[in-house]
Amino acid sequence: MLDIYRIAQTLGNIPLEASVPILVDALSDESFYVRNEAAWSLRKLLHISCDQLLARFDKLCGDAKIHGALVLGGRVAGNARTTAIRYLETALNRGQGEYSRNALYAIGEFEAGALPISIINACIEATESVDSAVQATAFWAPGRISEYASIQGAETKMALACYENTNAYVRTEATYGLMRYIHAQRNNDFLAVLCQVASGDLDFRTRYAGTQSLRLLAERGHPFKWTPREGDGLYFGIAYELELLDRILYKEKCDA
Q1: Mean pLDDT, residues 72-77 taken together
Q2: What is this structure's pTM?
Q3: What is the largest CA-CA distance in the chain?
Q4: Read out DSSP for the chain?
Q5: Which of 62, 105, 107, 167 is buried most, with the most CB atoms less than 10 Å from its CB?
Q6: Average pLDDT for 38-44
Q7: Is-contact 12 41, C-beta < 8 A?
Q8: How far is CA 68 from CA 2, 4, 83, 144, in A?
């Protein structure tokens, strides 16, 4: 598996048409890591891989087709993007478990251009999944989408998940999703939620996500007031983020 993974990775750096059929075949590999690496290599070579992949797309199945859609989603417009969106919406509505999670992942990795409201609504509906992995990815995807397209309706669900979801993994992904939304949409209404997560969540990983999110937003000029949780400076990851945050706030104070 490791050899195939490295081959797929290397071919993405060789802009030859002969690389494309090998990478398309690798989309059907039994290893997710190989499939994923092949998809990103094809996406790097999209200027030469698009037509070949599109010609073989209908013959792909299962997760191979989802990764194929991830590749085609790199096109801003045209038949490739439309084909990818149509398939992923169907996959998301019909799939379950890992299949739905990977479809959400592919949707979140579209780089530009508006998405149909139907597929955004399907992502939002997936936040109600009983599968925590699907649910977590469903909170991550709207955050990514908000970075290149206007999206409404997911921000309140992300904020509520930060507070109320019983699964720390889901709360963590909702925190990162909300951070991306706040910055991309220049909407600071939910900054208080991240402050609460960073100081009040009982799970260290989620508090780390909240602290890192605040630091990233501070770097990007979002104003907020926040008091760290007592004792969190003893945790290396959070301590590092707090140090970076202190530097940012000190510089802002000096500049003022």
Answers
A1: 79
A2: 0.85
A3: 61
A4: -HHHHHHHHHHTTS--TTHHHHHHHHTT-S-HHHHHHHHHHHHHTHHHHHHHHHHHGGG--HHHHHHHHHHHTTSSSSHHHHHHHHHHHHHHHH--THHHHHHHHHHHT--SS---HHHHHHHHHGGG-SSHHHHHHHHHHHHHHTTTS---SSHHHHHHHHHH-S-HHHHHHHHHHHHHHHHHTT-GGGHHHHHHHHHH-SSHHHHHHHHHHHHHHHHTT------PPTTGGGSHHHHHHHHHHHHHHHHHHHH-
A5: 107
A6: 95
A7: yes
A8: 21, 18, 10, 19
Pick 253 or 63 by higher pLDDT: 63
- pLDDT value at position 170? 96
Q: How far apart are CA 185 and CA 132, in angstroms?
A: 27
Write down the residue that tokens 């706030």 correspond to: 249
pLDDT of residue 114: 67
Has residue 176 got a pLDDT over 90? yes
Q: Which one has a higher pLDDT value, 185 or 138?
A: 138
Over 80: is that where the pLDDT of 94 sits? no
Return d(Cα 73, Cα 108) in angstroms, integer: 10
